[in-house]
Design a protein that fits this description.
The chain is an alpha/beta fold. It is 37% helix and 22% strand. This is DeoR family transcriptional regulator.
Amino acid sequence: MDLRLNRRQEALVAIVQREGFVGVDELASHFDVAPQTIRRDLNLLADGGLIRRYHGGVSAPSSIENVAYAARQSLQADEKGRIAKAIARAIPDGSSLFINLGTTNEVVGRALLEHRDLRVITNNLNIAILLSDNPTFEVIVAGGVVRGRDHGVTGEATIELIRQFKVDYGIIGISGIEPDGTLLDFDFHEVRVAQAIIDHSRQVFLGADHTKIGRNAMVRLGDFSRVNAWFTDRQPPDALMPVLEAAGTELHVAG
């Protein structure tokens, strides 16, 4: 399902993710629209897997499953674009890099297309096809099991190939960030690939927008001590700033 959300619908999803459960009348009051308008929004978002509807209200999807890939592509599009451009500016021509799975990383791939002479290893078939359009790039695709929902590749073969390289930059995404700086994701296999990328990169760049802060997910990737630079779209909460400082993680807020 190709979802194209307006600003109200994006803000609505963010509220539900933050609050857990919200009533229809409360949402209508917050956005100063009729309950019928909110109900139409909620039907669209529920069909796209972004929320769960109940009598009188809505909740976020279960924390053990991620939102449908096609739906995630439409969320925070402007924010992802700003983050992607900031990451691309930090990558010099002639660099070697890993890029793993995620909708933000696919936007990073598009932002890198104007570069020259990049050597890219990826387990994301969408990124591999995209970057192969630049004739100066060398693109290597990790082997493994292909997931139909997002064309990501995971498994032992994926990890084994990653371990054969040592690259300049590893670009990773994440599904959730705890207040103590713990980085979380939904898929154990995907996390193992990301951990291998971290271990075999000279610098690790995390691209994650503000909606990932406080979002629940089940699998622990690590913490900010594994990340050299975090690229995001808003200033993080004050509680996270000492965590970043202690970890030595540079913060880049893309304006």
